[in-house]
Protein backbone atom coordinates (compact mmCIF):
# COMPACT_ATOMS: atom_id res chain seq x y z
CA UNK A 1 0.00 0.00 0.00
CA UNK A 2 1.18 3.50 -0.75
CA UNK A 3 1.98 6.01 1.92
CA UNK A 4 0.01 9.24 2.02
CA UNK A 5 1.15 12.13 4.13
CA UNK A 6 -1.68 14.17 5.56
CA UNK A 7 -0.72 17.63 6.74
CA UNK A 8 -3.45 18.19 9.32
CA UNK A 9 -4.03 19.94 12.59
CA UNK A 10 -6.15 17.74 14.84
CA UNK A 11 -8.33 19.67 17.26
CA UNK A 12 -9.87 17.90 20.25
CA UNK A 13 -13.45 19.01 20.89
CA UNK A 14 -15.83 18.15 23.68
CA UNK A 15 -19.60 18.16 23.43
CA UNK A 16 -20.75 21.75 23.91
CA UNK A 17 -17.67 23.33 22.34
CA UNK A 18 -17.56 25.14 19.01
CA UNK A 19 -14.64 25.20 16.60
CA UNK A 20 -14.42 27.79 13.83
CA UNK A 21 -13.11 26.23 10.62
CA UNK A 22 -13.54 29.45 8.65
CA UNK A 23 -15.32 32.68 9.42
CA UNK A 24 -18.52 31.27 7.93
CA UNK A 25 -18.22 27.58 8.97
CA UNK A 26 -18.17 26.14 12.51
CA UNK A 27 -18.23 22.60 13.93
CA UNK A 28 -19.94 21.42 17.10
CA UNK A 29 -19.79 17.89 18.53
CA UNK A 30 -22.88 16.17 19.89
CA UNK A 31 -23.31 13.14 22.13
CA UNK A 32 -23.72 9.72 20.55
CA UNK A 33 -23.97 6.29 22.16
CA UNK A 34 -21.49 3.51 21.42
CA UNK A 35 -19.71 0.83 23.46
CA UNK A 36 -16.81 3.27 23.90
CA UNK A 37 -17.05 7.06 24.36
CA UNK A 38 -18.19 8.63 21.11
CA UNK A 39 -19.53 11.79 19.58
CA UNK A 40 -20.85 13.03 16.28
CA UNK A 41 -20.33 16.39 14.63
CA UNK A 42 -22.53 19.04 13.04
CA UNK A 43 -21.02 21.46 10.53
CA UNK A 44 -22.85 24.80 10.47
CA UNK A 45 -22.83 27.66 8.03
CA UNK A 46 -22.68 31.01 9.82
CA UNK A 47 -24.34 34.15 8.56
CA UNK A 48 -25.29 37.46 10.02
CA UNK A 49 -28.78 38.89 9.74
CA UNK A 50 -29.88 42.40 10.59
CA UNK A 51 -31.78 42.42 13.89
CA UNK A 52 -35.53 42.94 13.53
CA UNK A 53 -35.48 46.18 15.49
CA UNK A 54 -33.23 47.78 12.83
CA UNK A 55 -34.94 46.55 9.66
CA UNK A 56 -36.97 49.76 9.25
CA UNK A 57 -33.86 52.00 9.40
CA UNK A 58 -32.07 53.45 6.39
CA UNK A 59 -28.53 52.37 5.51
CA UNK A 60 -26.77 55.48 6.85
CA UNK A 61 -28.51 55.15 10.24
CA UNK A 62 -27.58 51.45 10.44
CA UNK A 63 -23.97 52.28 9.54
CA UNK A 64 -23.86 54.96 12.25
CA UNK A 65 -25.17 52.52 14.88
CA UNK A 66 -22.60 49.95 13.83
CA UNK A 67 -19.73 52.46 14.04
CA UNK A 68 -20.89 53.48 17.53
CA UNK A 69 -20.45 49.88 18.71
CA UNK A 70 -24.07 48.73 18.64
CA UNK A 71 -24.45 45.07 17.69
CA UNK A 72 -26.89 45.31 14.79
CA UNK A 73 -26.88 41.69 13.62
CA UNK A 74 -27.88 38.31 14.94
CA UNK A 75 -25.69 35.32 14.14
CA UNK A 76 -27.62 32.56 12.39
CA UNK A 77 -26.22 29.02 12.45
CA UNK A 78 -27.64 26.64 9.85
CA UNK A 79 -26.84 22.94 10.25
CA UNK A 80 -25.46 21.78 6.91
CA UNK A 81 -23.90 18.35 7.52
CA UNK A 82 -24.10 15.99 10.50
CA UNK A 83 -21.98 12.88 10.96
CA UNK A 84 -22.78 10.40 13.73
CA UNK A 85 -20.03 7.81 13.51
CA UNK A 86 -20.73 4.50 15.29
CA UNK A 87 -23.79 4.93 17.50
CA UNK A 88 -27.08 3.50 18.61
CA UNK A 89 -30.22 5.29 17.51
CA UNK A 90 -30.49 6.89 20.97
CA UNK A 91 -28.86 10.05 19.62
CA UNK A 92 -32.05 10.63 17.59
CA UNK A 93 -34.12 10.85 20.77
CA UNK A 94 -31.80 13.25 22.60
CA UNK A 95 -33.30 16.74 22.32
CA UNK A 96 -29.82 18.26 22.59
CA UNK A 97 -29.02 16.67 19.21
CA UNK A 98 -31.88 18.19 17.24
CA UNK A 99 -29.49 19.99 14.86
CA UNK A 100 -28.02 16.66 13.76
CA UNK A 101 -31.48 15.62 12.57
CA UNK A 102 -32.22 18.88 10.78
CA UNK A 103 -28.88 19.21 9.00
CA UNK A 104 -29.34 19.32 5.24
CA UNK A 105 -27.30 16.12 5.02
CA UNK A 106 -27.14 13.47 7.74
CA UNK A 107 -24.43 10.81 7.48
CA UNK A 108 -25.25 7.99 9.86
CA UNK A 109 -24.65 4.32 10.28
CA UNK A 110 -26.98 1.41 9.56
CA UNK A 111 -24.92 -1.58 10.62
CA UNK A 112 -27.84 -4.02 10.72
CA UNK A 113 -30.41 -4.26 7.93
CA UNK A 114 -32.91 -7.08 8.38
CA UNK A 115 -34.58 -9.55 10.73
CA UNK A 116 -31.38 -11.61 11.00
CA UNK A 117 -30.23 -9.32 13.82
CA UNK A 118 -32.54 -7.66 16.31
CA UNK A 119 -32.69 -4.04 17.36
CA UNK A 120 -31.64 -5.21 20.82
CA UNK A 121 -28.53 -6.83 19.31
CA UNK A 122 -27.69 -3.59 17.50
CA UNK A 123 -28.10 -1.55 20.69
CA UNK A 124 -26.03 -3.96 22.79
CA UNK A 125 -23.17 -3.59 20.32
CA UNK A 126 -23.44 0.21 20.02
CA UNK A 127 -24.91 0.29 16.52
CA UNK A 128 -28.06 1.25 14.66
CA UNK A 129 -30.50 -1.08 12.94
CA UNK A 130 -32.21 0.23 9.81
CA UNK A 131 -35.55 -0.61 11.48
CA UNK A 132 -34.76 2.03 14.14
CA UNK A 133 -34.25 4.65 11.46
CA UNK A 134 -37.69 3.72 10.13
CA UNK A 135 -39.10 3.96 13.68
CA UNK A 136 -37.66 7.42 14.21
CA UNK A 137 -38.27 8.74 10.68
CA UNK A 138 -40.59 11.48 11.96
CA UNK A 139 -37.59 13.18 13.62
CA UNK A 140 -35.47 13.28 10.45
CA UNK A 141 -35.73 16.67 8.76
CA UNK A 142 -32.65 16.27 6.56
CA UNK A 143 -32.93 16.59 2.80
CA UNK A 144 -30.52 13.68 2.38
CA UNK A 145 -29.64 10.76 4.64
CA UNK A 146 -26.43 8.97 3.73
CA UNK A 147 -26.12 5.54 5.30
CA UNK A 148 -22.79 3.93 5.98
CA UNK A 149 -21.04 1.31 8.16
CA UNK A 150 -22.99 -1.71 6.91
CA UNK A 151 -22.04 -5.02 8.45
CA UNK A 152 -19.92 -7.19 6.16
CA UNK A 153 -22.50 -9.93 6.82
CA UNK A 154 -24.58 -8.34 4.08
CA UNK A 155 -24.09 -8.05 0.35
CA UNK A 156 -24.90 -5.16 -1.97
CA UNK A 157 -28.36 -6.56 -2.77
CA UNK A 158 -29.22 -6.79 0.96
CA UNK A 159 -28.30 -3.12 1.31
CA UNK A 160 -30.40 -2.11 -1.71
CA UNK A 161 -33.44 -3.99 -0.39
CA UNK A 162 -33.16 -2.38 3.05
CA UNK A 163 -32.76 1.08 1.50
CA UNK A 164 -35.86 0.65 -0.67
CA UNK A 165 -37.91 -0.20 2.45
CA UNK A 166 -36.47 2.78 4.30
CA UNK A 167 -37.07 5.22 1.44
CA UNK A 168 -40.80 4.56 1.68
CA UNK A 169 -40.76 5.73 5.33
CA UNK A 170 -38.36 8.67 5.21
CA UNK A 171 -39.14 11.85 3.30
CA UNK A 172 -35.45 12.62 2.84
CA UNK A 173 -33.45 11.15 0.02
CA UNK A 174 -31.75 8.03 1.40
CA UNK A 175 -28.47 7.01 -0.20
CA UNK A 176 -26.29 4.06 0.82
CA UNK A 177 -22.58 4.90 0.81
CA UNK A 178 -21.22 1.65 -0.57
CA UNK A 179 -17.92 2.83 -2.05
CA UNK A 180 -15.29 0.52 -0.61
CA UNK A 181 -17.89 -1.74 1.02
CA UNK A 182 -16.61 -5.29 1.35
CA UNK A 183 -18.99 -8.15 2.00
CA UNK A 184 -17.55 -11.24 3.59
CA UNK A 185 -19.39 -13.13 0.84
CA UNK A 186 -17.74 -11.48 -2.15
TrEMBL record:
It comes from the Eukaryota. InterPro entries: RibonucZ/Hydroxyglut_hydro. SUPFAM superfamilies: Metallo-hydrolase/oxidoreductase (SSF56281). This is Uncharacterized protein. It comes from Rubroshorea leprosula.
